[in-house]
Amino acid sequence: MDRTPETLGAFCPMPDDAVVTQDDPIEVGLGAWPGLPEKTYRSHPAISHSDVRHWIKPRSLGRVGIIGSATHALALEGRAALEAQYISVDEDFDLRTYEGKQHAAELIGNSGKELLRHKERALVERMFHALGTHPQARKILDAPGENEVSLVSCFDGFGQTYKARLDMVRRASEWDLKTTSYINEQQWLDSEVEFGYINQAEWYASLYAALTGEYRPFGFLCVSKREPHNVWTRLVPNQLMALGRKWREDVLTLYERYVPKEMRSVTR
Question: If you write DSSP's letter for every residue of 73-109 in order, what string do you get?
Fold first, then answer.
């Protein structure tokens, strides 16, 4: 398979018989890669939006991040993917205690999976059901296209290689699935700027455009973690995408100027 920059207008499909191990990693060059295992994506040395955000202000998502990732796996990759990545248990216990951590370690063993406690798995299932019964969400999820597309490319005017993992690429749009503590779209709007979601959206859209030459509408598909798990869709206005572009260009100018190459892996 030719994986040179000259092929950048099309997806780079994974071989049907590809088996990824640490000893025999798949070579991932510039391109859009549907089906790339998440561990392979995360280990790729290109710089992600999360890397840059962490460089600005380190933070940890903790259990919140695991619930979001598990919902992504179930909604975008299917139940088999969820079972392959997570161990579900019919009990709840405190992971902050020594005893809880020891119990979790025993449950996980050497499986390489992450743990979903009973209440966490139940929450994931309820959000999945809410997405599946919402007409607009169902239409987006079922539309032809690719899910979990790993992007590796360069931004115009910058020297480093950057990456992103785009949730949904559809015929004429791109979508990011968000699990949120907000109850409805009105509450969600402020978080788009407060938590940098607009910057993330622009990063994804521009990196995809760098690969394909096509800058397309970008939207959020949101599901609330709170009962009754409302679902809504939100296409990001052009003026907010322009704001995200300004943020990216300013931040990457500083990043590439002041973070030495040998330190970049440390910042991640």
Answer: IIIII-HHHHHHHEEE-S----TTSHHHHHHHHHHHT
DSSP 8-state secondary structure symbol assigned to residue 73: I
> Is there a contact between 3 and 15 (Cβ–Cβ < 8 Å)?
no
Residue 52 has pLDDT above 70, yes or no: yes
Nearest to 210 by CA among 5, 3, 15: 5
Instruction: Please say whether the beta carbons of 89 and 39 come within 8 A.
Output: no
**15: pLDDT strictly greater than 50:** no
Bin 220: left if φ > 0, else alpha if -120 < ψ < 50, else beta. beta
Is the pLDDT higher at 91 or at 133? 133
Given a contact cutoff of 8 angstroms between Cβ atoms, the answer to whether 47 and 203 are in contact is no
Number of Cβ within a 10 Å radius of residue 79: 10
